[in-house]
Amino acid sequence: MQGPTKLLENEDNWVTDMGAWFPAERVVFRGKDLFRELGDLPWMGLLLYGITGRVPDEKQIRLFDAMWVLCTSYPDPRLWNNRVAALAGTARSTALLALGAANAVSEASLYGRRPGIRAIDFLLRAKQQLDQGVDLKRVVALELEKHKRIYGYGRPVTDQDERIVPLLTFAATLGFSDGVYVGLAFAVEEILLARPKPLHMNIAIVLAALAADQGLTPHEYYRFMALSFSAGMTACHVDAMQKPEGTLFPLSCKRLAYCGAPRRVWESV
């Protein structure tokens, strides 16, 4: 932006067809009347319409709803983002502050939102290369050579991801379990399982594949999943609020492995 031209053009002016509030009259939500045209949509349908500009059908809404339900953050305060929500509760902070902070730290490099957007980005790029005639093993090898990992494969603590079977079982009831990108995700896993250090898929690649099969772009998928951990976080905040203040995972001093300067004895002059 050169000079103040753009700022002057937008002073007291915002041109958009995304939405507007007409006091005591109506609300425009992405070009539609919220009360007259969108009022019968479930929350998930409205969320997806706001993100994509497309009204999902009933089966799609059920799929995306299940993706949130089955893959939310578990109500376990030991998990990294849930601990933030629980800490807010044990400090008697509000639910909004707890959820805001816990969702913010969900944008981690190895967990949460970043692996999700990287997983769907990989699937879309891999499909493009396959369409150009590149062998899938070559696609995987190039990805590993460039990025050292493929997001959506591998998991700490355990190889098996307990969320995959329930989600794909539900997706199958809707006819969404055998899409192109779901098949691609499993084909990549076959290649990774044949390596000296085999890697199993985790839920990130399955979620990304289901979303890609429904036509979501990486950024649409990222925005859709942004608040999906909130259910487990809220439960952790409630749990901590119901217990004595300041009692979440305390550590006694004797458990600290201190390696600093030794204790000093002060002598009186």
UniProtKB/TrEMBL annotation:
InterPro entries found in the cross-reference section: Citrate_synth-like_lrg_a-sub, Citrate_synth-like_sm_a-sub, Citrate_synthase, Citrate_synthase_sf
Molecular function GO terms recorded: citrate synthase activity
Pfam families found in the cross-reference section: Citrate_synt
Bilayer-crossing regions: none
The EC number(s) this enzyme carries: 2.3.3.16
Pathway: Carbohydrate metabolism; tricarboxylic acid cycle; isocitrate from oxaloacetate: step 1/2
GO biological process terms held by the UniProt record: tricarboxylic acid cycle
Name listed for the protein in its UniProt record: citrate synthase (unknown stereospecificity)
Species annotation: Methylogaea oryzae
